[in-house]
C-alpha cells in the first residue's frame, strides 16, 4: 500500500491552490484499491454487481449449426446460378430436436428458426424468398449463396473461451449470456459500502422548522441517490452538527463500517467549523483547491485503522470490537449543491468504480463524453475545468446540439441540474467557445 505522502509526491510541481482536475483523478486512482472479498450469488440477484473472475464457457453457444430463419434447408451445392432451383420437400425439422431423416441431391427440409441443421445441409432459404407448391419449392437464381441463413455452432461462444471477464459489470446482456451457459451462480465482488453525512449548522433535516439563514439538506438526497444508482450500499447518516464531539462520533461510526466516507460542507477556506480539524485528526487528509468550477475546495484522504485508533483514544474499544480492519477513503466535498454533485461525478464516481473492482476502461472512467455543437457562445478561462449544466437535443438535421439550462449557472442552483441531461465539460486548457463549436458532454444517462 502506497502512503499518502508517496502519492501526494506525484502531485509535486502542481500548485496546490489550483490543482488540475485530471491530476486529482490520477491521485485517486493511486490511492484506492479494488475490494478483495467476493461472494457467490444466484444469477438473478447479480444484476449490477461486478464479476470477480473470468467465466470460461463450458459449452459452445449455440451448441449446433442451426437455422436463422423459418424456411427450407438444403445443400448449397444444389443451387443453380442461371435458372431457378427446384427442390422437393421431404420432411420438417422443428426447433428443439434433430431431424433424423436422410436426404438426396435436389431435396430440402422445411425448417424452423433455431432448429438443428440436418446433416449435410448448409443453406436455408427463408419461406418468403421462395415459391412453395404442394411438396416442392422454387428459388429464383442469384438471390442466395451457400451458407446463407445458417448459424454456426459456437458462433456466439466457443467452449473453453472466456465468456465474460473479471471486472464485468453484470448488466442484463451479461446475465443473459451466463444463463445461456447454464451458469446458475456467479462469484462477484462484495458490494461497496459508502457512508454519507452532511455537515453545517445551517443545514436542516426535512421536517425541521424553518429558521432564518438555514437551508434544507438537499445534498443528502443527491449523494445517496447517486450511490444507489451506482449500485453501492449507502449508509445515510443524516446531518451532523458542527461540533467536535458530534463529528468525531460520526467519522468513527462511518469509518468503522464503510469502505468510503463522504461528507459535504465545511471544507472551504476560512470555514469556521470543525470538519477539517476532525478529518486531520482522524486520518491522512489532503485539502485541495481544485482548478475547476463549480467545486473548488475538496478534502481527500484515508482513515487508516492504525492512525485512527491512535488518534481516537475514546473510541478505541468500540473500534477493536468492530470488524473495522480496512482503510476508509474519505471524500470531503464542497457544500454547494451543484458542486457536491459535480465532484461526485468527476472524482468520486471514478474512484468508487475502481474500488468496486469494475473494468474502469469499459465503464467510462473518465466517463466517455459525447460531442454536441454549442448553441451559444460560452465564456471560459483557460487554466481550470468548468462543468456547465447542459441540455442536449437533436437539431433539425439530426445532429446533436447543446445549450446551457439556466441563466444562473451558480454552484448552488440545483434547478440547473434538474433541467439538464448532461454536463458540458470545458477542459482545463480550453478557452471561449463559439456558437456552433463542438463541446464534450458527460451525459447523465450512463453516469447517474
Ligand atoms: P460550505 O461548503 O460548507 O462552505 O457550503 C457552501 C454552501 O453550500 C453554503 O451556502 C451552504 O449553506 C450550502 N450547503 C452546505 N451543505 C448543504 C447541504 N447539505 N444541502 C444543501 N446546501 C448545503
Ligand atoms: Mg459550511
Describe it.
- This protein is an alpha/beta fold and 448 residues long.
- The protein has four domains: 4-37 and 191-363, Molybdenum Cofactor Biosythetic Enzyme, Chain A, CATH 3.40.980; 39-61 and 155-189, Molybdopterin biosynthesis moea protein, domain 2; 66-151, Molybdopterin biosynthesis moea protein, domain 3 (Molybdopterin biosynthesis moeA protein, domain 3, Beta Complex), CATH 2.170.190; 370-443, Beta-clip, CATH 2.40.340.
- It is 23% helix and 29% strand.
- The chain contains eleven helices and 26 strands.
- The protein has helices at residues 4-9, 21-31, 172-180, 219-229, 244-257, 275-282, 305-311, 316-321, 337-355, 414-419, 444-447, and strands at residues 19-20, 38-42, 55-56, 66-67, 71-74, 85-93, 107-111, 123-126, 131-133, 136-139, 150-151, 162-164, 185-189, 193-199, 203-204, 215-216, 233-240, 260-264, 284-293, 297-303, 328-333, 370-374, 385-394, 400-404, 422-426, 438-443.
- A six-stranded mixed sheet has the order 8-5-7-6-10-9, with no helix packed on it.
- Helix 2 packs parallel to helix 9 (337-355) and helix 4 (219-229) runs parallel beside helix 9 (337-355).
- The longest helix has 19 residues, at 337-355.
- It is elongated and about 90 Å long.
- The chain starts with a helix and ends with a helix.
- Residues 198, 200, 202-203, 215, 217-219, 264-268, 271, 334-337, 412 line the site of adenosine monophosphate (AMP).
- Taken from the alpha-carbon principal axes, the silhouette is elongated
What is the helical fraction, as a range of percent?
10-25%
Q: What is the CATH class of the largest domain?
A: Alpha Beta
Measured between the Cα atoms of the first and last residue, the distance is 31 Å
What is the count of β-strands?
26
Number of domains: 4
Q: Which hetero compounds are present in the coordinates?
A: adenosine monophosphate, magnesium ion
**Class inferred from helices and paired strands:** alpha/beta
CATH fold-level assignment of the largest domain: Molybdenum Cofactor Biosythetic Enzyme, Chain A
- Low-pLDDT parts are 316-324
Q: Give me the Rg, rounded.
A: 30 Å
Task: Quote the average pLDDT.
Answer: 90
Count of helix runs: 11
Fourth-tier CATH superfamily name of the largest domain: MoaB/Mog-like domain
Architecture of the largest domain in CATH?
A: 3-Layer(aba) Sandwich
Strand content: 25-35%
Amino acid at each position: 500500500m502506497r502512503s499518502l505522502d508517496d502519492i501526494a509526491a506525484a502531485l509535486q510541481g502542481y500548485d496546490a491552490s489550483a490543482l488540475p482536475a485530471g491530476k486529482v483523478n490520477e491521485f485517486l486512482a493511486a490511492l484506492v484499491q479494488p475490494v478483495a472479498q467476493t461472494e457467490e450469488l444466484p444469477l438473478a440477484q447479480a444484476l449490477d454487481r461486478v464479476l470477480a473472475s473470468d467465466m470460461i464457457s463450458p459449452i459452445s453457444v449455440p451448441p449446433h449449426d442451426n437455422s436463422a430463419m423459418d424456411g427450407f434447408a438444403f445443400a448449397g451445392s444444389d443451387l443453380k446460378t442461371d435458372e431457378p432451383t427446384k427442390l422437393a420437400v421431404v420432411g420438417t425439422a422443428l426447433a428443439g430436436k434433430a431431424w433424423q431423416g436422410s436426404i438426396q441431391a435436389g431435396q430440402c427440409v422445411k425448417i424452423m428458426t433455431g432448429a438443428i441443421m440436418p446433416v449435410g445441409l448448409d443453406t436455408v432459404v427463408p419461406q418468403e424468398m421462395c415459391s412453395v407448391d404442394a411438396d416442392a419449392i422454387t428459388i429464383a437464381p442469384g438471390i442466395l449463396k451457400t451458407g446463407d441463413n445458417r448459424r454456426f455452432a459456437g458462433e456466439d461462444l466457443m467452449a473453453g473461451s472466456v465468456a465474460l471477464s473479471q471486472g464485468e459489470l453484470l448488466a442484463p446482456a451479461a446475465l443473459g449470456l451466463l444463463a445461456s451457459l447454464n451458469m446458475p451462480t456467479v462469484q462477484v465482488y462484495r458490494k461497496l459500502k459508502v457512508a454519507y453525512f452532511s455537515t453545517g449548522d445551517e443545514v436542516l433535516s426535512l421536517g425541521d422548522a424553518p429558521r432564518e439563514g438555514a437551508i434544507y439538506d438537499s445534498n443528502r438526497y443527491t449523494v445517496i441517490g447517486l450511490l444507489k444508482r451506482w449500485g453501492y450500499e449507502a449508509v445515510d447518516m443524516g446531518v451532523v452538527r458542527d461540533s467536535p464531539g458530534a463529528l468525531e462520533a460520526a467519522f468513527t461510526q462511518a469509518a468503522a463500517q464503510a469502505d468510503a466516507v463522504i461528507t459535504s460542507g465545511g471544507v472551504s477556506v476560512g470555514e469556521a467549523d470543525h470538519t477539517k480539524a476532525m478529518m486531520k485528526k482522524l486520518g491522512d487528509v489532503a485539502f485541495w483547491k481544485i482548478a475547476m468550477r463549480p467545486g473548488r475546495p475538496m478534502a481527500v484522504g484515508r482513515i487508516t485503522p492504525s492512525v485512527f485508533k491512535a488518534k481516537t483514544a475514546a473510541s478505541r474499544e468500540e473500534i477493536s470490537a468492530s470488524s473495522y480492519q480496512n482503510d476508509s477513503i474519505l471524500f470531503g466535498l464542497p457544500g454547494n449543491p451543484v458542486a457536491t454533485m459535480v465532484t461526485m461525478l468527476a472524482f468520486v464516481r471514478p474512484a468508487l468504480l475502481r474500488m468496486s473492482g469494475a473494468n474502469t476502461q469499459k465503464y467510462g472512467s473518465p466517463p466517455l463524453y459525447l460531442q454536441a455543437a454549442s448553441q451559444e457562445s460560452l465564456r471560459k478561462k483557460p487554466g481550470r475545468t468548468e462543468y456547465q449544466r447542459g441540455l442536449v437535443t437533436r437539431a433539425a438535421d439530426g445532429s446533436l446540439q447543446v445549450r446551457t439550462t439556466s441563466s444562473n449557472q451558480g454552484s448552488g442552483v440545483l434547478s440547473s441540474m434538474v433541467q439538464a441531461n448532461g454536463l458540458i465539460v470545458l477542459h482545463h486548457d480550453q478557452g471561449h467557445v463559439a456558437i456552433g463549436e463542438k463541446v464534450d458532454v458527460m451525459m447523465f444517462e450512463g453516469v447517474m
